[in-house]
Amino acid sequence: MILYTVMPQEIVFAEQNQETNIHEQIEYKGVPLLVEMQGNEAEVIQIMSTNPMHFLHPDISPGQKLKLNV
């Protein structure tokens, strides 16, 4: 990709340079999940399991908040 601009590269690609890794992969009740941590709560972003039965549990569906005992 060629980008013709007078703006510095640091400004153009500022969002890509930020290292905000708020997503973590955890295992909850034996199911691997991608979650967004918020204190002692985790919001489910994605179910990382390959077992189709894990997708049927309503308590770990994407968008649900999980209380974690840290």
Automatic annotation (TrEMBL):
Q: Which domain of life is it from?
A: Bacteria
The protein here is known as TepA modulator TepJ
Any one Pfam family here would be YlzJ
- Write down the species: Bacillus vallismortis
